[in-house]
Amino acid sequence: MVYSVSDLILIAGCYLLFLFAVAWITERGWLPAHWVRHPAVYVLSLGVYASAWAVYGSVGYAYQYGYNFLSYFLGISGVFLLAPILLAPILRLTTTYQLSSLADLFAFRYRSRLAGAMTTIIMLIGVLPLLALQLKAVAESIQILSGTADPRDLAAGFCLMMVIFAILFGARHTTAREKHEGLVMAIAMESLIKLLAFGAVALLGLYGVFDGPSSLNAWLDDHPEMLARLYYPLQDGTWHSMIMAFFVSAVVLPHMFYMAFTENMNPRALITASWALPLMFLLMALCVPVILWAAAAGNAPTPPDYYALGIGMITGGHGAVLGYIAGLAGASGMLIVATLALSGMCLNHLVLPASPLQGQNLYRNLLWTRRILIAAILALAYLFYRFSGTEHTLVELGVLTFVATLQFVPGLIGALFWPSGNRNGLFAGLLVGFILWVMLLLVPIAYPNWQFQPLMELLGMRFQTGASQWHNVAIASVTANALIYAIVSIVTPMSRSEKNAAEACAVDSLRRPYRWDLSAQTVDEFVTALSGPLGPGTAAREVDMALGDLQLNANETRPYALRRLRDQLETNLSGLLGPSVAHQLMDDNLPYKPQDGESSEDIQFIESRLEQYRDRLSGLAAELDSLRRFHRSR
């Protein structure tokens, strides 16, 4: 059945309006709070990882590389199965210090604006192929179903639609740091729709093309080569590097980091996600071979990437719309969240450090800057698709991004588990790994005639296509990155502030706070000091918010309480301006005065850790904690 372009665009518009209605109803408080904060909503919101690549690209990946497609689902499942070890420390840091992205985390851990800026630039370039993939998938699915000739204009229209809805979902209000409950609920609904539609496509293939599981088994018995095609690619040994790439991408990709940590409204839900999310992706993985076999048995008239559409086309009726809705859901959810996350990274680490937004209209200026960044990022994604994505499959574009994310592995491991890793090692390792990725993967995809033969020979590689090349580049780049990161970190010194941040980021760290003096002696002096960079109104509001967070009053003069207020202000401003700008702003306007050469410690972090251990204390420790609470309340 052939659909008109207007019908398919209308479906897309109605779907996005439905998601916006879900978000609006949630923000209005019409849904019970225990629904919004239920662990199931958090788990479903993490389904944003399953973009159009999961719906379309995974089937094409299975067609080309057999059971290697499971690496996509096994990668994210492995991350969340290890959530208490790998993800809980990151959640603790992002919650305590208001870190909203990997760039924020690196800037805080390595105490460097350059670390945040470099992470932002590499992440933006690395994610562009995945963003372009979403535009390509929706445009080409409309092309297939409508029979139009050129999908590039369709991609431009969809890109414009996504700019509007991304702004509506995440950049509509001037308030800054609150959780976007409406966005989380909408993305959870998107994942549910995507899962149901993708499952319905598999069932349509199972019962529409075949007559059920027994008929499918009989067909496989008659076509043993179909099973052999799935098993054979496992022998090339590339699956382990791809599992590693998908494993890492589940943590560091901007949309995953944003939903897993920044928008986490219930930290305990991470435990539920450790088993529920792998189960959800297992269900999606089971659908892939069924769709692949049904399309092969029915001679689906589409490329392998779009077999989810082809099954509906060969079974008649409106079954193809199910595949279209599944792909649309995956693409739109990923684009909305990823552009929101990337716009925040660019604002905090590229725009603000270069030209800080100051004055009475700080919140308004931040909001409009972020809206412009959202439009600019999606425009870059469209340009990437226009000039390179049209010539390549969804599989190629997706893997390009997943391999790029591997470059953040050494820095992230160092941030959490190796206190001796420093910013010099991070810069050197990231730069080398990124250059290898650009020269050996990105450039050959954009310009197939350009091959860096001497570099390949130096690394003991020869040019290959497909999975073999991805595997070689992944191993070579991340190995070089890690070695250089470790060597440079060992041979170069760390700054004192970097050591402090490393201790704060260390897993299960609990440090003794030093007593530092502040030049400000009253809360009013805080407002006066911050009025210059923030404006009087914004400064007063930020100080009031910090006082409320700590349950202190405006007449507070105790040195200990003022130190806590200063740290809370830096934490809050980190959520608004990014850790680099916030740290510099506080150091310039409300500096500590170290005594006897001692270094700064994070009092707010100590307090938060003691609060976490409150229920575990007994005996003398519990009595001492009670005395601490009494003293703090005086």
Distinctive features:
single chain, 634 residues, two-stranded antiparallel sheet, mainly alpha, 30 helices
What does this molecule look like?
This protein has 634 residues and is an all-alpha fold. 75% of the residues lie in helices and 1% in strands. The longest helix has 36 residues. About 2% of the residues have low confidence.
Average of per-residue pLDDT values: 84
Give the neighbour order of strands across the main sheet: 1-2
- In total, the number of strands is 2
Shape: globular
Please give the largest β-sheet: 2 strands, antiparallel
Strand content: under 5%
| Count of DSSP-assigned helices | 30
Helicity range of the residues?
over 70%
Write the layout of secondary structure elements.
Layout: H1 5-27, H2 33-36, H3 39-45, H4 52-65, H5 70-81, H6 83-97, H7 102-109, H8 113-146, H9 152-170, H10 181-209, H11 213-222, H12 224-231, H13 239-252, H14 254-262, H15 269-297, H16 307-315, H17 319-354, H18 362-387, H19 394-404, H20 409-417, H21 423-446, H22 453-458, H23 467-491, H24 496-505, E1 517-518, H25 523-534, H26 536-550, H27 559-577, H28 579-589, E2 592-593, H29 603-612, H30 619-633
Antiparallel strand pairs: 1-2
